[in-house]
Amino acid sequence: MRTIARNEIGRLLDGLLAGYAVYAPVRRKGILVFDRIRSGDEAILDYANTRTSPKHVLMPQMETLLSSCGEDPGVSEHTDCGKPAVLFGARPCDARAFLFLDKVLRDGQSRDVYYANRRDSLLVISIGCTQPRETCFCTTTGGGPLSAEGSDILLEDLGSVYLAHVASSRGAEFAAAHGLLDTCEGEPPGSGTVNGGLQPAIEPPVDLGLLKAALDRSFDDPLWLTLAEKCLGCGICSYLCPACHCFDIVDEEAAGVRVRNRVWDSCQFSCFTAQASGFNPRPTGRERYRQRIMHKFNYCIDNHGMAGCVGCGRCVSECPVNLDMRQVLAAFGGRRGGN
Amino acid sequence: MTDCTARIREETARLLAEGRVDLVIGFEEGSLPLRATPCFITEPGDTGRLIWNAFCSNNLARYLIRSDRKVGIVAKGCDTRAIVELIKEKQVRREDVVIIGVPCHGMVDPHEVRERFGDIRIQTVEDTGGKLVAGDGTALLSMNREDALHRSCRVCVQRNPVISDVLVGEEVEERTRDEFTDVADFASRSAGERWEYIAGEMSRCIRCNACRNACPLCYCSKCFVDETRPQWVGRGTDPSDVLSFHLMRVLHLAGRCVECGACVRACPMGVDLGTLNRRMSADVARMFGCRPGLDPGKPAPLSTFDPDDPQDFMLEP
Fold first, then answer.
1. In the β-sheet with A76-77, what is the strand arrangement from edge to edge?
2. Looking at beta carbons, which residues of chain A come within 8 Å of B207?
3. Do B208 and A235 touch (CB under 8 A)?
4. What residues 183-202 of chain B have any CB closer than 8 A to a CB of chain A?
């Protein structure tokens, strides 16, 4: 059994700061986010989850892909991601989102070199959940409060100590190289019960298989119009989502430096599908909201074998009009036991 | 069930049954504690979904834009202020809207309630006699309702509907005059300090456009930030682009912002848009003697010319 004492975490992170860019949950003006820390004691350990997801560590909201300068015909590719990084304190849902992003951006038909380079130099140390929020639905989408998918090391919170589950060979090497973990006698409490005792607290309202089958038949369902009626068409759900990854490419120029930037984009924006001809294949909220749900719970399962949602609940808790995706999924007949 | 809830249901059923409207926009119970959510009722049999409580904070006037139906709308003071401006700007025809006006005691900010009660898992909230009583199934905790209001509600000067076709509930007493004391401190700081504060706030913006989309007066069919030929404002988080978006938005709302606070409530990052908007509203009030949405007969200050308009900005200081 390998453990690390809670009050040793600060020292552990301090030790990593020399060699790694360390990201951890911190409070910025009252809002919890993942950000670079400069000292181990900045990391917040008592939290349900952060307001924004940690996906920006792998896919910044804005990044420069290419640049060129003045009369120089050469183009620089900005593929170097700098120092290797450690993401400390991700929740299992967010770590699982990395598994999904890997399928789309790194391991699939096309390899996004910018994402892949960051991902390959990132080590993920996640912390399992002890208290699900009222918006959590990770178990619906195949995860769980102690799921280690996407993590290299999962820490199980036992109060004054964390029990470490090494979840990848890189995690094992890392733990050994940094002397991260103490070894003591005894059986690991949570091992073998991936979802611990928490699973019943997060009732899966839908069955993903049934939902997918229902969505296959629902492209023209009038329900989309009703469901999308109150949607404001903002990008909160997409931008807070750990799995949404759509982007726009923009070329900009200032003071003789030309850059090609990638910026996050959202399928909920009207200009997302606006074409140069002036035609927009998704002209209203009905088509745009349908796309968001279909992409996550239908097309992603076809294309990547995994839903594009990890049930973190950020879209549920932060939607300004309380458009609750769980209700939308249930409305399509994916309820367990049939509907 | 509160009296207001019962009356809203009754009026909605009547309007639909009489065929005066195609739908009524109101609120129903949200999926989470401390939340109500907009709903659209088209059948008299569905009126039982409608509610009225301390969490009906969305500005429903936003849903009137580009509607081609006869609409009944449940409206607080600020919602009616927005409707007044939308009518003036010819975005809504008065005869197409039936306003079910509801005097408002101020809407409660769920964040304030959670902040006060810490980590208890709130399941119920009672709103009685100026107190909010939150319960987690075992214990009950109480706080003053006034302490939990949204910022915009704390400085609201129009809690009763400005215009309505049916008034539901007792009129409430309007509070004392608003002297913009909430932005007095900000206004008194040096330009450098103000810049630093606003730049700090903007650094948290994630460009989700929720402020714009929640706003009942942001109805341009193509917003300047969505222009791509040419691109007016960069779409990323470059500080100059973020600031350009917010400054141009606030200036476009000068003389039109009804101070409902919908932008502030929608922001997922807690960006202090309120200070920027309220500072602008203070200028409009001082320079033009205008509080948008309060007077249906008064033309919008920045779309009309008056020889007495302040013109010092055109002269040497």
1. A76-77, A62-69, A257-264, A247-254
2. 61, 235, 239, 264
3. yes
4. 200
Are residues A131 and A75 part of one domain?
yes
Best residue in B206, B223, B244 for a mutation probing chain A (most A CBs within 10 Å): B206
Q: List, run by run, the mean pLDDT of 10-residue segments along chain A (339 residues).
A: 87 94 95 96 93 97 95 91 94 97 94 96 96 90 93 93 92 83 54 47 77 94 93 97 96 90 96 91 96 97 96 96 93 60
**What's the gap in Å between the CA of B41 and the closest CA on chain A?**
11
Residues B143 and B277 in one domain: no
Residue A312 forms part of a structural domain: yes
The helices-and-strands tally (H runs, E runs) of chain B is 10, 9
Question: With an 8 Å Cβ cutoff, is B69 touching chain A?
Answer: no
Residue-number span of the structural domain to which A151 is assigned: 2-201
Spatial neighbors of A319 by CB under 8 A, at least 6 apart, are A236, A237
The domain of B128 spans 110-148
Of the three residues A164, A181, A201, the one that is the final residue of a domain is A201
Residue ending a domain, choose from A140, A174, A201: A201
Question: Do A161 and A262 belong to one domain?
Answer: no
Question: What interhelical angle do B191-202 and B273-288 show, nearest 10?
Answer: 130
B210 vs A: CB within 8 A: yes
Tell me: do A145 and A176 sit in the same domain.
yes
Cα separation, B101 vs B7, in Å, equals: 11
